[in-house]
Amino acid sequence: MGYLIGVTALWAFSFSLIGVYLAGQVDSYFAVLLRVTLAMLVFLPFLRPGLLRGKQRLALMGLGAIQLGVMYTFFYQSFLLLSVPEVLLFTIFTPIYIALLDDLLFGRFTPIYLVTALLAVVGAGVIRYDGVDSGFWAGFLVVQGANLCFALGQVGYRRLAAGLPPTLAWHNVFGWFFIGAMVVALPAYLLFGNSAALPTTSLQWGVLAWLGLVASGVGYFAWNQGATKVDAGTLAIMNNALVPAGLIVNLVIWNRDADIPRLLLGAVIMAASLWLNHWWCQRRQVAVS
């Protein structure tokens, strides 16, 4: 849980940095490519290919390609079809996908996870709903593609980790994750990138360096490690904890307007979903023992 809370705080700052210094100024495909490249360089020195078999390496690369490469391709395209509030609103469905995919991959059905995930969606919706325009269905589907990729990457990582030795040094194999993401990010930039919209200031380069080395490199490693240490219900709920965290950071540092009563109400609803999930897990442990 500590991993997820820490990365939530980290990514809350990152989203504001993107919105203030990069969005509409730096080519999105280049930003993704540089983030993936820098993150990959963080882990390449630690890479020990012999720790994983061929299929396991390919599985980890596939998860990186989906969770990072394909997800970002969908996500950045959504801004061409939707307003920013609509994109933020439609990302709140990720917990539902996590709850359903986790049960599917682990061969079970846990209704309480779906209930708490839906409650987390309600909480995030209370915070972020600002109304939608009429012709938004194409954009809605693109965002759901991003949500599914992010959810599948997390759940797939949990499933892969469950079949590997608990003593595995993940920092010695996580480079494969970013290599997989590079397989998608590089062709995407070569095909769709705009070389005329590269960073022009040292501040933009600095923001990209931070996003690549820390937010992507450290962030995705810690988040996926955290995903293996909690139950699916907690993971699903934490995917929407970024909404209130991001708004708080934006309000405090960049003084952007935020509806404080809605922010508090949504946060309370999501906290209630976490409490309900924790209560159910404790009750299940008592019943088993």
TrEMBL record:
- Give TM segment ranges: 29-46, 58-75, 81-100, 112-129, 135-157, 169-191, 203-223, 235-254, 260-280
Regarding the membrane, this protein is recorded as:
Multi-pass membrane protein
The primary location reported for this protein is membrane
Q: Which residues form the EamA domain?
A: 3-127
Q: What is this protein called?
A: Membrane protein
UniProtKB keywords = Cell membrane, Membrane, Repeat, Transmembrane, Transmembrane helix, Transport
UniProt organism field: Halomonas campaniensis
GO CC terms on record? plasma membrane
| Signal sequence annotation | none
Q: Where in the cell is it found?
A: Cell membrane
**Coiled-coil annotated spans:** none
Q: What is one Pfam family matched by this protein?
A: EamA
